[in-house]
Amino acid sequence: MKKTMAVFCTAAITLIACNSSTNSNTTTSDSSAPAAATATKPPATEEKWEPVDSATEMKAWQEYATPGASHEALAKSNGSWNGEVTMWHSADGAPMSSKATITNKMILGGRYQQSNFSGNFMGMPFEGMSIVGYDNYLKKFISTWVDNMGTGIMKMEGPWDESSKSMTLTGSSINPANGKECKMREVYKIVDAKTEIMEMYGPDSKTGKEYKMMEIKFTRK
Question: How far is Cα 143 from Cα 145, in angstroms, rounded to an integer?
Fold first, then answer.
C-alpha cells in the first residue's frame, strides 16, 4: 500500500486542474447597491478544558503512538518501483505519458512511510516527496506531499476499503493564479504484490467538474 501521495499534485493543480481565467470568476460590484448591515458576532466561547488523570493520559498516548496492522500494510510497499505516468490537461484532452521512479521506506520506528519520487513534468525535471501514516485516533490514513514545482504542502486523508483493496483520500490546494481552492480526490489500489495503481481526480479547467487528471501504474523493480 505504497503511498506516493498526490504525485504531481502541486504541479498538476497549478498548471492543469484550476488554470481557468481569473476574469471569468470575477464579480462586478454595484456601487449603487445599499451597504449590507453589519452583523454583530457573539463573542467566541472558549471550550472548557477537560482534565485527564495521568494513568488515562499515558494509556491513550501509548495506544496513539504504537504502530499497528495498518502501518505493517504500508511497509509491504517498501522498496523501489517504476512508474508509468499518464496525465490529461482537461477532460477532453489528449493523454501525456512519462516515466518515473519511486522509492519507499518506513521511518520513525515504522510509524510513517516516506516516498521519494523522480520523473519529469512537461519536459522539466520533477522531484517530490510524500509522508504517509495511519492515525490511530482518527482511524484513517493521512498524507502530505511536497515537490520542486511549488512551495506549499498538500494534505490528504481518507479510509482504507478492504473489499476493493484501495483507499480514497481527499484534500485541496490553492491555485496561486486565481486564488481558487481546488478539491482533489485520490484513489490508490493494490492490484498485487508487484503492481499498484494511483488515480488522481480534480476539477476540469473549462467546466469545474471532476475528471481523472492523472493515473500512475507502479511496478515493483
Answer: 7
CB 192 within 8 A of CB 76: no
CA end-to-end span of the chain: 15
Amino acid identity, residue 144?
Answer: T
Q: How does DSSP assign 4-51, residue by residue?
A: -TTTTHHHHIIIIIT---SGGGPPPP-TTSPPPPPPPPPPPPPPPP--
pTM for the model stands at: 0.79
Provide the CA 218 distance to its chain's centre, in angstroms. Answer: 17
**pLDDT lower than 70: segments of the chain:** 1-44
Per-residue pLDDT tens over the stretch 136-192: 999 999 999 999 999 999 999 999 999 999 999 999 988 888 888 889 999 999 999
List phi, psi (to 5°) of 215. -140, 135
Instruction: Annotate 151-171 with DSSP letters as a single string.
Output: S--EEEEE-EETTTTEEEEEE
Determine the 3-state secondary structure of 128 from DSSP: strand
Q: Which residues pair with 155 in a beta bridge?
A: 144
Distance, CA of 41 to CA of 199 (rounded, Å): 43
